[in-house]
Design brief:
The complex is a heterodimer.
Chain A (H helix, E strand, L loop, with lengths): L2 E9 L9 H4 L4 E2 L13 E2 L4 E10 L3 E2 L10 E2 L2 E2 L6 E2 L4 E6 L2 E2 L12 E2 L21 E3 L4 E7 L13 E10 L1 H12 L5 H16 L8
Antiparallel strand pairs in A: 1-14, 2-13, 3-13, 4-12, 4-14, 5-8, 6-7, 9-10, 9-11, 9-13
Helix pairs in contact in A: 2-3
Chain B lengths: L11 H8 L6 H5 L4 E9 L1 E2 L5 E3 L6 E2 L8 E2 L6 E3 L4 E2 L4 E10 L6 E6 L2 E2 L12 E2 L16 E3 L13 E4 L13 E3 L4 E7 L21 E10 L1 H12 L5 H20 L6
Parallel strand pairs in B: 3-6
Antiparallel strand pairs in B: 1-16, 2-4, 5-15, 7-15, 8-14, 8-16, 9-10, 9-11, 9-15, 12-13
Helix pairs in contact in B: 3-4
The chains are: A alpha+beta, B alpha+beta.
Chain lengths: 216, 269
């Protein structure tokens, strides 16, 4: 299984150290090793024979609205907020980091907090649909370390299960498929399962082609 | 009128440095990530009801947005802002692929390149731009100014804090930004938000004397940097749409051309 679709879901309320407002508010937390919510044992990285393509990141959405005169609601469409404000949800963002480089930047070329959950919601629903797709995809080359960082800016969104979530979908190319992925990258061809299969078919076709009559 | 198709020329310096590095340090070169999907979100949220903040702040409150006044979502001085006007350097090329805004209060977005507004009326007069109703953010949000329909509260009262709210409709996009908007190297660009009704800042009071609003705008663009910016310019000259697939196609064309040249006895000279 040298080419595998992979997912990772993070929830701030899971794991041995559930998040609190104090540990999460305004902090850029690694969803892998941030010490809050469910984590893994070591930073996400690729070996010399692995190639990762990050295809999607998403986070808990936020709802923005105008309050009608007599409403002091604290919950809208399943998202929590303050009765005095008109936004509901964690005001969350998800950023990709490759080695030490943050992927998403503002137009002033300064790194920002990443993709807003309102643009790439997790989970998706009729009420919250994506405005963003990660295209072109993000490549993690062999030997690199990568991370997804979650930041929330609302202390009124709650810290229960489902209040702060982050999701990433990626494809792991291992062994010979990793070599092919590198080759495709050099050739300027998008690395995806279809193109990796195409390259394999090309190699097989070349190998099975009849040899020239002069043996050259 | 004749279109001249300019076959991809060899950009040997680019190839040597970024594509086919003979020193074998390709990994380092690729870390430049020269073609990147980028997003920007503006909200009328800041630490105070009149100000702005560089990017998002903790537990922000709504900032007042005046009706019928175009507000630069990057440096407009209201809500979340950035440090300087959005612009491209000599080695950057930006393709704006999507703009969207909260549909409430008649919100609309326009793109401005240098001093030229992109969306105009048929009589070439100014307009507010793409309505949030046509390109909503977030997708699936509600449309009306009276956004919240009060549901049955915990005590059955109609005005109790902590009540659940049954939200209204789901606005979906009627608009997509095709063709995309190009920001060429050295240009300045901005995105302007306009609403037809004033959005109140501050906090909602228990006596219901103020309707506080939180609105947002969203821009999705792709930043081509370094050699990919040169390729984007080349594609533009050739009349080919600038997108990641076509930039990759151009790179492949360069590599194939180089391979053919190396295969010939005199090196293709």
């Amino acid at each position: 299984m040298a080419m595998r679709s992979q997912v990772y879901e993070w929830d701030g309320a899971r794991g041995p150290t559930p998040g609190t407002t104090g540990t999460m508010l305004g902090r850029s937390l690694s969803i892998f090793i941030g010490g809050v919510g469910n984590n893994i044992t070591m930073p996400a990285s690729t070996t010399a024979t692995q190639f990762v393509v990050i295809e999607e990141i998403a986070a808990t959405p936020t709802y923005f609205g105008i309050k009608s005169t007599l409403t002091l609601a604290t919950s809208v469409r399943g998202l929590n907020g303050a009765s005095t404000n008109s936004y509901f949800g964690p005001l969350a963002y998800a950023q990709i980091v490759i080695n030490t480089t943050e992927y998403f930047q503002d137009p002033d070329n300064v790194s920002n907090y990443g993709v807003p959950g309102a643009a790439s919601p997790y989970p998706r629903s009729v009420n919250f649909q994506p405005s963003f797709s990660l295209h072109p995809t993000v490549y993690v080359l062999p030997g690199q370390t990568w991370d997804v960082r979650y930041t929330t800016f609302s202390s009124n969104a709650g810290v229960a299960l489902g209040d702060n979530q982050c999701f990433t979908k990626y494809t792991l190319y291992d062994g010979p498929d990793s070599l092919i992925a590198n080759k495709l990258l050099e050739m300027g061809i998008t690395v995806n399962p279809g193109n990796v299969d195409w390259y394999k078919r090309s190699l097989l076709s070349a190998a099975s082609a009849p040899a020239p009559t002069n043996g050259a | 009128m004749f279109w001249t198709f300019d076959f991809p020329q060899r950009l040997s310096s680019i190839k040597k440095k970024y594509i086919n590095n003979p020193k074998g340090n390709k990994k380092m070169e690729m870390k430049k990530m020269a073609m990147r999907s980028q997003v920007y979100e503006w909200t009328n949220l800041a630490p105070t009801s009149t100000g702005s903040n560089i990017r998002q702040s903790n537990d922000p409150i709504s900032v007042t947005v005046d009706a019928e006044k175009a507000l630069d979502i990057f440096i407009g001085g209201k809500g979340t802002n950035i440090t300087q006007p959005a612009s491209t350097t000599a080695t950057q090329f930006v393709v704006i692929e999507d703009i969207a805004a909260s549909p409430q209060s008649g919100g609309a977005l326009n793109v401005r390149i240098n001093t030229t507004d992109y969306f105009q009326n048929p009589d070439v007069t100014q307009q507010a731009g793409v309505p949030g109703l046509a390109s909503p953010y977030p997708r699936g949000t509600t449309s009306g100014g009276e956004t919240f329909t009060l549901g049955e509260g915990a005590t059955g009262a109609t005005n109790n804090g902590g009540s659940n709210v049954i939200a209204g409709d789901n606005v979906l996009p009627s608009f997509s930004l095709t063709p995309e908007v190009y920001v060429l190297p050295g240009q300045t660009w901005s995105v302007l938000y306009t609403c037809t009704a004033t959005i109140n800042g501050g906090v909602t009071l228990a006596n219901g004397t103020i309707n506080v609003g939180a609105v947002a705008a969203f821009v999705k663009y792709t930043l081509y940097d370094g050699p990919d910016s040169l390729i984007a310019n080349k594609l533009l000259e050739m009349g080919i749409t600038v997108n990641p697939s076509n930039v990759d196609w151009y790179k492949r064309s360069l590599l194939e051309q180089q391979s053919r040249a190396m295969a010939t006895p005199n090196g293709g000279a």
